[in-house]
Write a structure and sequence with these properties.
Shape: elongated
Number of domains: 1
Number of strands: 2
Structural class: mainly alpha
CATH topology: 434 Repressor (Amino-terminal Domain)
Radius of gyration: 17 Å
Order of helices and strands: EHHHHE
CATH class: Mainly Alpha
C-alpha cells in the first residue's frame, strides 16, 4: 500500500493528469495527494480507477509530510553551566 503522491511520482504523472483521468477537480486531487483532505469513498474509486488500481492499494489516511510540519526547539527551564 502506497500513498498517492508516491504512486504519482513513480509513474511520472502530475496532479493535473490524475484530475483529468479521474474527472475530479484538480484542487481536490491536489489536497488529497498532499494529505490535506481525506478522499470520500466515491473519490477513492475514481482515483483508483484512473490509476488502474484497487482502492485498497492506496493509503488514504490523512497525513502530513515532515517538511510541512513545524518543529520547535524547547530549551531548558534553567540555565545549565
Amino acid at each position: 500500500m502506497r500513498t498517492l503522491d508516491y504512486i504519482l511520482e513513480k509513474r511520472a504523472m502530475t496532479v493535473g493528469q490524475l484530475a483529468e483521468l479521474s474527472a475530479l477537480d484538480q484542487g481536490r486531487v491536489e489536497a488529497i495527494t498532499v494529505g490535506r483532505w481525506t478522499a470520500s469513498p466515491r473519490e477513492r474509486q475514481q482515483i483508483a480507477a484512473a490509476l488502474d488500481l484497487r482502492s485498497d492499494d492506496i493509503f488514504w489516511g490523512h497525513y502530513m509530510e515532515p517538511r510541512v510540519q513545524e518543529y520547535r526547539r524547547v530549551g531548558f527551564e534553567r540555565d545549565f553551566q
